[in-house]
Amino acid sequence: MELYRNLRVGSRGQDVAGAKRAVYKLLARDNGKWWTYYEKMPDKSRKTFGFRFRTHLIKAQKQMAIKRDRLGVFGQYTLNTLDELKCVDHISVKLLNTAKPNPAEQKFEKLIASMESMSAHTPGYQLGGGHGILLSNVSPYQKLDCSSSSSKALYDAGMFPWSTAIVSGEFARIWGEPGEGQYFTVYANSEHVFVRLHKSRWWRFDTSPHGDGGRGPRLRFLPRRTSSFTKRHWPGL
């Protein structure tokens, strides 16, 4: 049962890769004899075990919509093998097999990944840092300001139509479209810009602490006032 416990997926789907490794171990063990053991279980035990196993696979499937292409979680070969060995019912295999990445979620995931990188490696804040150079050359290890870090994150996610950073006043006027987004909203005025994250455990990506950490581009849990800012969003997000 140790192998079964390895399949447990956290509520945020953080162990999807672990689930993948455990499935491969299952398939490799004694040429599939593990499932012969499963099939010989009493009906009651088999039903309980099978239900729990399917539950964990479905949890992994929910995360796969975002991570499948990037991490290669549950590739087609694995799904075919699962189906051939009758490891789970056809409904579960179909759920895994037909999961299609949501383009909006993929963009948002890339945005969060870029923000996480800057948040983890930033040496701090520098006014003008990251401006005047290609965003492809901007490093998460260098000091950035509010507009360059926001530009970099959006550029990495494919939601920035320019190759160099713009300033906060330009965010308020020309980036994206007016209004609040579903996944995130850029709040900007002539002096500052930050990103409000609606579908994330973090509240915002911001260089200003407002009681949450030090200065520099970081993901932050605590909210801040937004009344003096213009709302902008990316089409479809």
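Next protein, fold it too.
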Amino acid sequence: MTTRILLCSLFAAVCLPSALAQADNPKLVGTVGRNDAFTITLRDASGALVTHLDPGTYDLEVQDLSEEHNFHLHGPGVDMATDPATTSDVVWTVTLAEGKYSYICDVHASQMRGWFTVGNVPPTALTASVGPKQKIALQPKTVEVGPATITVSDKSKTDNFHLVGPGVDRKTKIVGRGTQKWNVTLQPGRYTYSSDKHKKLRGSFVVTLPS
């Protein structure tokens, strides 16, 4: 009997904490409007800003600290928001699937926004070209945030392809031709491309949050 009690006690001490740990969901913390500032963040349990997560179920603690802002999480299978007219401190249990997610303040979406990827998200493919003659192009004209691969075909001996935008400043050489592949991370906003030799040779495209 003593041996049986001892074994049960050991089983409880060793196995139950592990089982309970598996039952706990990873924690995320979303904060908006601290001190009524135009700030919105999403952090993991260690305090690091979230840029990528594994698919799964998470407990998201939302700290909505302002009556002028709100926290709105949107993505595959998730569309949840706090009320911009009140403050709140709530916990959402969310299941995140593979794809892209955004979090914004609905009242100030152009200023207060962020995004992250979940799982294996393939890069968006873009194609760009300069030349022959004085021609420059890039397709598509509207893409979502996230990793992207830009294949640049430089067919000109006198112009280059120069891309500038949030977090990106890449260019081919003015002298010389060839094809390059750039791996970049596109942020929300407008990107411009041009030739450094002929400034009138230019265009732009827009990067949006996940739809």
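About the second fold: Residues 1-22 have pLDDT under 50 and may be disordered.
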